[in-house]
Amino acid sequence: MTEKVTGKFYKRIFLAGILILALFLTGCSGIAPSSGRAEDAAAKTESGTDLNVHFIDVGQGDSTLIEKDGRYMLIDAGERDQGPVVVSYLKEQGVKTLDYVIGTHPHSDHIGGLEAVIRAFDVGTIIMPEKAHTTKLYERLLDTIEEKNLKITLPKPGTTYDLGSASFQILAPNRDYGDELNNWSVGIRVDYGNNSFLLCGDAEKEAEEDMVANGLSLKADVLKVSHHGSSTSSSQAFIDRADPEYAVISCGKNNDYGHPHKETLELFQKKHIKVLRTDQLGTIVAVSDGTKVTFPGVGDRMEPKAAEGSEASGVSTEAPDSQSTRREYVVNTKTKKFHLPDCSSADSIKEMNRSSIIGTREELIGMGYEPCKICKP
Ligand SMILES: [Zn+2]
Ligand SMILES: [Zn+2]
Question: Which end of the chain has the smaller Cβ count within 10 Å, N or C?
Answer without folding.
Answer: N
